[in-house]
């Protein structure tokens, strides 16, 4: 018992190693364990299994992208992935010429299916559900760098972009566009 307690809090280092663990939906603890052993090769499999069972993680695997930097104790590793405390990916809109390219880029860094996103982008009924005008699709994607979770869904991505659009277009910005004789869509295109 005492040895297990000591190992539970022993720091394991990620220095110079691939330190990102991707847990896909529907993965089981066996696959997670293999991924953790690649990141932390000094871990002992039996110890990882024992502590995961003690911490009630084995049957509660959560998908996500988990980054490990610096030293981590085994209990800290398990707490991070058990709580679903995933790390975001950065996504920039500044370099895409069209929505199809953007959808492909989103699909490369998240679990969003890029083909599904492309379909959503041309389906005006979906945009109407979000209160958005399908004739002005490009204007809903404000050029910026965003942090997204790797597990973001297509619906989650669209909702996030709508939220960012609404956050950007404050009353003050809307009034400024109007005072210049522009609609929001015109201001975005000419800005």
Shape: elongated
Strand content: 5-15%
Largest sheet: 2 strands, antiparallel
Number of helical stretches of at least 4 residues: 10
Q: What fraction, in percent, of the residue positions are helical? A: 40-55%
What can you see in these coordinates?
- With 191 residues, this protein is mainly alpha-helical.
- It has ten helices and six strands.
- The strands form three sheets. It has a two-stranded antiparallel sheet with strand order 1-4.
- α5 runs antiparallel to α6 (114-121).
- Residues 1-6 have low confidence and may be disordered.
Overview features:
191 residues, mainly alpha, two-stranded antiparallel ribbon, 49% helix, elongated, disordered N terminus
Concise summary:
The protein is mainly alpha-helical. Helix content is 49%, strand content 10%. The relative contact order is 0.11.
Fold topology:
Layout: H1 2-9, E1 11-12, E2 20-23, H2 29-39, H3 45-54, E3 64-67, E4 72-73, H4 74-82, E5 89-92, H5 99-109, H6 114-121, H7 124-129, E6 145-148, H8 154-168, H9 171-179, H10 184-190
Antiparallel strand pairs: 1-4, 2-3, 5-6
């Amino acid at each position: 018992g005492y040895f297990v307690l000591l190992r539970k809090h022993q720091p394991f280092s990620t220095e110079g190693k691939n330190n990102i663990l991707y847990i896909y939906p529907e993965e089981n603890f066996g696959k997670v364990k293999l991924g953790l052993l690649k990141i932390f090769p000094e871990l002992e499999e039996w110890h990882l299994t024992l502590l995961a069972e003690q911490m009630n993680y084995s049957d509660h695997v959560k998908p996500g992208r988990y980054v490990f930097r610096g030293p981590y104790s085994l209990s800290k590793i398990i707490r991070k992935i058990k709580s679903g405390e995933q790390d975001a990916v950065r996504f920039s809109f500044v370099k895409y010429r069209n929505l199809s390219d953007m959808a492909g880029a989103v699909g490369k860094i998240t679990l969003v299916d890029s083909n599904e996103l492309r379909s959503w982008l041309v389906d005006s009924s979906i945009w109407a559900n979000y209160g958005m005008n399908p004739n002005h699709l490009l204007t809903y994607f404000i050029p910026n760098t965003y942090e997204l979770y790797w597990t973001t869904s297509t619906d989650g991505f669209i909702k996030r972009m709508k939220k960012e659009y609404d956050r950007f277009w404050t009353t003050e910005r809307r009034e400024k566009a109007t005072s210049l004789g522009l609609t929001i869509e015109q201001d975005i295109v000419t800005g």
